[in-house]
Each structure stands twice: as structure tokens, then as C-alpha cells.
Design a protein that fits this description.
about 270 residues, alpha+beta, Phosphatase 2c, domain 1, six-stranded antiparallel β-sheet, about 25% strand, globular, disordered N terminus, disordered C terminus
């Protein structure tokens, strides 16, 4: 068992929850947690019920399979591994769509988090508008930039003065499968004991702003409780889209988990 210098046990606490929301009958979001390699994936499919569900499923399964394969090859750094795995998923979706007209145009976002074995480094890769955040020292920080037309214009300081002329915030500038070419963003971050990492679909952030999300981290330190509160809050506000959230906490010391929720927690000692 690996420990930090102070000899206190560090555990990874994981919470996750997905929900169709209050409007849609089907859930086109997907997520995967691989505790063996500390890999966390979240995808938001698009293209209609069947196509969206399939696109997010292909995204998750293909990315996971190729990350595992590339890690075993021990030839590449984490940034290359994540980027290559996402490219494989992109190709898999396009191949599937090319063989069936009913899947034409389907696509998916992806946001991935990979923790190195020492639990001091976080790699985040994404395409689309599913987001990654870190909650550190009482503050919630966005780690990703949305791949939307609106955000491209905003970052270029080209937004018109009149908000009514702004492009829609929901139009993606790139997505797996739906775009001919993708350019995943991959970034490296230092992380500390008791930090929280959150991945979520835009169904969450369209309903809850960063200030509101931050309040839930301040109210509880248990990842599953925070996930439950976020999903419930989004639904209370009438969640118009599917809503999915994964929260990972690097927990130092003993774990005090209420008996009623104990079965919802996944922990891994390191």
C-alpha cells in the first residue's frame, strides 16, 4: 500500500449518478469508472434517441478499451494515450454511421480524467461541452473550455455588443463522430489531498451555475452525496436534458460514511 510521507492512508472516494432529466424520456449520456487504472469517462450522445445512446456507448467503450491497451504497451505518455484513445472512438463512431443511414450524423462529447499512480497528477482530455472541474481550498475551478461556436467567438473577443445577436451556446464546434476532424484538448494538473474532481454533462451546467455547484461541495465532502444533491437540484429546476455527474475525492484519513448511504460509495486504497 502506498502512502504519503505523513503515513496517513489516502483513499479515492467516488460518486456517480446519471438521470434522464425532467423532459427527455431516454438517457443518451454514458459514463465509465475503471478503478484499476484510475480512469473516469463521461460522454453525452447526440443524433436522436437510438443514435445518441449508441454514439455515447461507442465513445465510452472504445476510449476505455484503447486506453487500457495503450497503457499496457508502456510506450506513450498519458496525454498521448488519452488523445489516441479518443481518436479511435471518433473513428469507430464514423465507421458505424457510414454503414447505416439511420445513424448518419450521430456524435458524442467526451470528458476524461486520468489519475497517475502517485495521485498527485491529473490528466484531463475532452471534446465538446462536457466539463471537468476541480474543487480546491473551498473554490470550484473549471478545467476545460467548451468546444462551442459561442465559446470560440467569446475567446476571440468577437461577441457582438447586443446579446440577442450572440450565437447559441449549445452549438458544438466539434464532436466525436459528427465532425470530420476533431482536436481533443489534453491538459495536466497538479492535485492535492482532499481535492474533488468533477466531470459532468452540459445538462448539469445548463441548469446549475458554478456558484450553485460550489455550494454543494461546501455542504458535504462525500462524493455520492454531492452527486445526489446536484442531480436532484437540476431536476427540481426542470432539467431539460440528460444529467450526469462523476465526482472523485482524494480523501486523507478515516472515512465516516452514514450507514444508509454506505453501499453507494466506491473506495480504493493506495
Amino acid at each position: 500500500m502506498k502512502t504519503f510521507k505523513n503515513k496517513k492512508t489516502v483513499k479515492i472516494l467516488i460518486g456517480a449518478k446519471t438521470d434522464p432529466g425532467m423532459v427527455r424520456k431516454h438517457n443518451e449520456d454514458n459514463y465509465l469508472i475503471d478503478e484499476k487504472i484510475n480512469l473516469f469517462l463521461l460522454a453525452d450522445g447526440m443524433g436522436g434517441h437510438l443514435a445518441g445512446e449508441l454514439a455515447s456507448k461507442i465513445t465510452i467503450n472504445s476510449t476505455h478499451k484503447n486506453v487500457v491497451r495503450l497503457i499496457k504497451e508502456e510506450k506513450n505518455t498519458p496525454d498521448i494515450i488519452l488523445k489516441e484513445a479518443i481518436y479511435y472512438a471518433h473513428k469507430a463512431i464514423r465507421n458505424k454511421a457510414s454503414g447505416d443511414i439511420s445513424f448518419h450524423g450521430m456524435g458524442s462529447t467526451i470528458v476524461s480524467a486520468y489519475l497517475t499512480s502517485k495521485l498527485d497528477t491529473l490528466w484531463v482530455a475532452h471534446v465538446g461541452d462536457s466539463r471537468a472541474y476541480i474543487f480546491h481550498n473551498g473554490e470550484l475551478e473549471l478545467l476545460t473550455e467548451d468546444h462551442t461556436i459561442f465559446n470560440q467567438v467569446r475567446l476571440a473577443s468577437l461577441l457582438p455588443e447586443d446579446p440577442s445577436e450572440w450565437p447559441s451556446k449549445n452549438i458544438l464546434s466539434q464532436a466525436l463522430g459528427a465532425s470530420q476532424i476533431i482536436v481533443p484538448d489534453v491538459n495536466k494538473f497538479n492535485i492535492n489531498k482532499n481535492d474533488h474532481i468533477m466531470l459532468c454533462s452540459d445538462g448539469v451546467t445548463n441548469m446549475l451555475d458554478d456558484k450553485t455547484l460550489s455550494e454543494y461541495f461546501n455542504m458535504s465532502s462525500h462524493p455520492q452525496i454531492i452527486c445526489d444533491e446536484i442531480i436532484d437540484s437540476a431536476n427540481t429546476k426542470g432539467a431539460k436534458d440528460n444529467i450526469t455527474v462523476i465526482i472523485i475525492k482524494l480523501h486523507e484519513g478515516d472515512i465516516n460514511i452514514p450507514i444508509k448511504t454506505e453501499n453507494f460509495y466506491k473506495t480504493k486504497e493506495v
